[in-house]
Structures are given as structure tokens and as C-alpha cells.
Amino acid sequence: MDRSVYIAMTGATQIMQAQDVVSHNLANASTTGFKSELDAFRSLPVLGPGSPTRINAVAQSIGRNDGQGTLQQTGRPLDVAMRGSGWIAVQAPDGSEAYTRAGSLQLAADGTLTDAAGNPVIGSGGPITVPASTQIVIGGDGTISSVPLGQAASSLNQVDQIKLVNPDPSQLSKGADGLLHMNDGSSADADPSVQLVSGTLEGSNVNPSEELVRMISLSRQYDMQVRSIKTAEDDADDSIKLLQSN
Predict the structure, then answer these.
(1) Less crowded by CB within 10 Å, the N or C end of the chain?
(2) Residues 110-153 pLDDT 10s
(3) How far apart are CA 50 and CA 2, in angstroms?
(4) pTM, whole model, 2 decimals?
(5) Residue 184 CA: distances (Å) to CA of 97, 123, 188
């Protein structure tokens, strides 16, 4: 195989991987609490015989953008958003503790408080269960209070407190479940300085315009790699014809 074809072929493959990241971001431009994924190209030398003059551009993830999305008031008591940095602790499908900023909380039929994906929200002693109530209030510190059925509106009782954490961003990585996990598999400590805003949701921090511009740029780079492959093929055909004519 001509070495230029190899470089162009691998370059096109890496560009397709970068396009996958952009597509994922665009698909979640309206997802509550979503943090856009970041990637970049890294130059690596092509190993092999001959002079090391050829370079491959390899697409690599460089983390995520943890910047806050736009806060949108909903007035719904179970909608919460982080005020600044921080995360809500939930129980992942595998039973481990994980973290999210998607604050569209729900009540399951058995009273379990969950995120929109059905993952139980963790409180001071495990998953939070809210008794049947006529009113539920979530305070800025994550405290959950409710008025039990059959009681007066003044009978507001504290039920539990949502575990709010704020580990260093470098300690967190996104799992296959779409939630963030501690890199070492541990559980982050609760941070009393983290605050919630009730009746509000945090929108995605994806900038659709920037992502579209990046997608266009990647598409043009991909076309360039494909043209390079075609040029190498044409050169090879011309060389064969020249040899045959001689």
C-alpha cells in the first residue's frame, strides 16, 4: 500500500471519530444538564522503515466542558438546578454512586425520588423515599420537606437531604450509563457549600452554532483525505499504464 494512502485513510477514520463527538453534542443540545464533550487531534509519528517524516492526526477525548448551562425557570417543585459548580448524587444502574446535573426529579410509584432516567437520588442514608404528600419543598441545601396526606399545610416535615458533591473535575469521568463516576470507584464526600435552585432546570451547555461550524470544518477535512486517496490511486494507475506501454 502506498504510504500516502495509509496516512489519508487513517486520517479520514480519525475525522469520523471526531464527527461522532460533535454529533453527540448536537443531539444533546436540549438535554437537561448535559455537558458537552471536548476532543482534539494529537500528532503521532508513523512508525516503520524509512525516515520518520509522516505524521498521523489521532482524535482524542480531552474531557468535557463543565461550564454552567442556561437556567430556565419551570415552577415545578421537583425541578432543581445547581447554583454554580456541584453535582447531585444518584444510584447508578450497577448500584454504585454516580453524579448528574440533570435536576428534573421524579417520584416513582413507591415514593422513591429519582432523576429523569429513573436512577434513585441519594440522601443522607441511601436512596430517598418521600411519603405520600400534598406538597414537597426542596431547599437550597438539598433539604426535602413535605406535607403528608391528611395534614395541614403548616405541617411541613423534613424527609431527607439530597447528597450534593463537588469533587475536582479531574476526578470524574463519564461512564457508559451517561453518569459521572469517581475515577477510583469511590464515593465523593458531601459538600455543604453546594446550593440548589428550586423550580428551575439547567439547560445543556452545548453551543449549537459552534458545533455546526466544527462539523462543517471536519467534513471539509474528510473530503480532503478522500481526495488524497483518489489522487494516490490515480498516480498508481498512471504508473502501471506507463510501465505497460514500455
Answers:
(1) C
(2) 999 999 999 999 999 899 999 988 899 999 999 999 998 877 77
(3) 13
(4) 0.79
(5) 12, 22, 10
